[in-house]
Amino acid sequence: MKIAKIAATWYQAPFARPIANSTFTYGASNKVVVRIHTDGGLVGTGWTNGTGLAMAIARDMGQRIVGRDALDRTAALAVLADDKVYGRGGLSAKSRSAIDIALWDLAGQVSGLSIHRMLGAHRDRVPAYVAGGYYAEGKDLSSLAEEALGALSLGARAFKMKIGLADPKRDLERVAAVRSAVGPDVALLVDANGGYDRATARLMADGLREFDVAWFEEPIDSRDVEGQAALRAAAGIPIASGESEHSLHEMGYAIRSRAMDVLNADAQCVDGITGWAVAAQMAAEEGIPVAPHGDQELHVHLAAAVPHGTFVEYYHGVNALREEMFVERLELNDDGTVSPPDRPGLGFVFDEERLARFRRDGLEAGAA
Ligand SMILES: [Mg+2]
Predict the structure, then answer these.
(1) Least buried of 192, 288, 290, 356, by fewest C-beta within 10 Å?
(2) For 116-338, which CATH class?
(3) pLDDT by residue (tens digit) across 217-256?
């Protein structure tokens, strides 16, 4: 089964109003979708967060693996790990990830197995947390609390909110407002997106303990591995990170340095599902649970496949692309968990008609 053609397409959906975390304001959601066509007519899909640059790299990488056996994922990844041409990490890691995910999807279609089953299927339900609580123009404490309650009304029993943009006192008021709205039994997570310096992160950890925070995500720039490891040792609340590590080398160093209590590895940027499984194994060896970052349709398969997969991040209503790109959505179970679909590969089919409205650009690799 040979790879005949690879199409990389960039989709973009603007937000109704820009949303912000501590470090960036986002006006739109961007995805690069990779579709790998085989000579037998199968199409595998993978994706990553990115724009035209990630699309162009994916096309360039695609040209290198056209004609290869579509089931030889490891061989394809090895060809695409060409540091001299693509550098290490960054956008090339994202594009390579999208290709790897598409190859796994193809292998699932060939075997008739879901990705979850291909990886070993540890359980069929994983708790989900609804990710939200962004900053936005005009968003006050009551609308933040309302948003958290809206997440719970979907069936979730956990909610994550942003901190780190407002001053620490104000952010603690925001956390207090959400805790008081959702009550004591809901898991409340906070995410600073690396926005604090070491000293402020320590002060925030002290302030957050009172609100029974389930984890404090990316308190400081996670490249400061020593600083984050020191904070983790002193914080008294669990520290989560991993979404910004785009190579297994960096991730392994952070894991072995005990820089986090929970690993948020993201298959969209750590060499796909193949790389994610390696990251998860490294975490297991250090007794660190994994709670993948982003994209529930992909990560529900992965978190449910390993014994130490504790949480799936779940987006609802944040942006049009996320809401409309799939024919079938991943719904929450009534106990606040999500379950991987027992369908071949990723098991989520794109709604091509609706997705087409968001198409910005496309490139193809293949025999001319
Ligand atoms: Mg985060």
Answers:
(1) 356
(2) alpha beta
(3) 999 999 999 999 999 999 999 999 999 999 999 999 999 9
